[in-house]
Amino acid sequence: MTVPGAPTGRSVQLAASGERARIVPDEHDDGWVLEIGGMVQSHVDLADPTRIRYEYLRRMANVLDAAWAPGLPVRVLHLGAGALTLPRYVQATRPGSAQAVVDLDRELPSLITAELPLPAGTELDVVIGDAREALARLPAGGFDAVVLDIHTAVDAAAHLTGEGFYAELLDRLGPGGVLLVNIGDDAGLRFLAREARALESAADRAGLPGAWALADATLVERRQAGNVVLAVGQDLGAGDPEALRAGLLAAGPHPAAVLDPSALAALAAAIG
C-alpha cells in the first residue's frame, strides 16, 4: 500500500474549543496521533487503516464487522471526527461505503484530511456544527450505522445524552441499522448506568432490543474509569445471541467483556 508523505507538523487553533490541534509522530510505533490541547486524542496508521490501537474504537469496529457480511458497503454517520480513524477502517474493509462526519470544530477535519489523507476512494461528507442540530437536518432511516463518539459526562455536552437524544439517533437508522455509543466514565460507572438505562428506554420505545456493552473486562468487574461501547441494533444477536457474544469476545481487545442486554441492565441496576 502506498503511504502519503509525512505530515508537516503544523498546528491549527480550533475556534469552537479554543484549543490547538496538531498531528505528531506516535511515540510507540510508526503511526501518527492527533493532539488537542496537548492531549492525545486519536491514532492513525496510514500504512494499515485496519489497525486500530484505541481499545474502544477497536470494539466499535468489531461490531460493524459482525453486523453485515464482509465487504458489504454501508452508510455510516459519525458524530465526532477525531482523526477519522473509524471512517478509514470502514473504507478499508467496506470499499464504496457512503460516510458522513459531524464535528463542531471547522478547522479539525481540514487539518486531518490535509495531514493524514484518507484512503483512496473514500466517500466522506463533512458537516460542521453541533451534533444534535446537524442530526435534525439529516433524514430518518438514512444510515446503516450511527456512531456517537463525542466526550459527554454529567457536566459536559448534556444535550448529547439521555433518552430523547438516543431516540433521535435511533430514528436515523434504516432497517437492520446499528447505533454505537462511546461512554467514557469515572470510577464507579454511575454515568454509564444512567446512560445505559436511557438507551434501553429509547430502544424499547423504538421497538428494538436493548443495548449490548463492550469493554475491558477489568473495567466492568472493578467498575474502573474508562470507555464502554454501547450497541443497539434490531439484528444484533437476533439469530444466536451467544454466537455474537462469543465472536465479539474472541475479537478482543483482551481482556474483553461483552454484556448482552439483560446483563447490561443487571449491571446498571447494581450500580444504582
What is the strand and helix layout of this fold?
Blueprint: E1 11-13, E2 20-25, E3 32-36, E4 39-44, H1 55-67, E5 75-79, H2 85-93, E6 98-103, H3 107-115, E7 123-128, H4 131-136, E8 143-148, H5 162-171, E9 173-185, H6 190-205, E10 212-216, H7 217-222, E11 226-233, H8 241-251, E12 256-259, H9 261-271
Written account of the structure:
The structure is a single chain. Helices cover 33% and strands 27% of the residues. The protein has 272 residues and is of the alpha/beta class. It has a single domain (50-271), classed as Vaccinia Virus protein VP39 (Rossmann fold), CATH 3.40.50.150. It is globular and about 50 Å long.
Provide a compact summary of the structure:
By secondary structure, the protein is an alpha/beta fold. It has helices at 55-67, 85-93, 107-115, 131-136, 162-171, 190-205, 217-222, 241-251, 261-271, and strands at 11-13, 20-25, 32-36, 39-44, 75-79, 98-103, 123-128, 143-148, 173-185, 212-216, 226-233, 256-259. The chain has one domain (50-271): Vaccinia Virus protein VP39 (Rossmann fold, 3-Layer(aba) Sandwich), CATH 3.40.50.150.
Helical residue percent band: 25-40%
The SSE order reads EEEEHEHEHEHEHEHEHEHEH
CATH class: Alpha Beta
Number of domains: 1
Index terms:
272 residues, alpha/beta, Rossmann fold, 8-stranded mixed beta sheet, globular
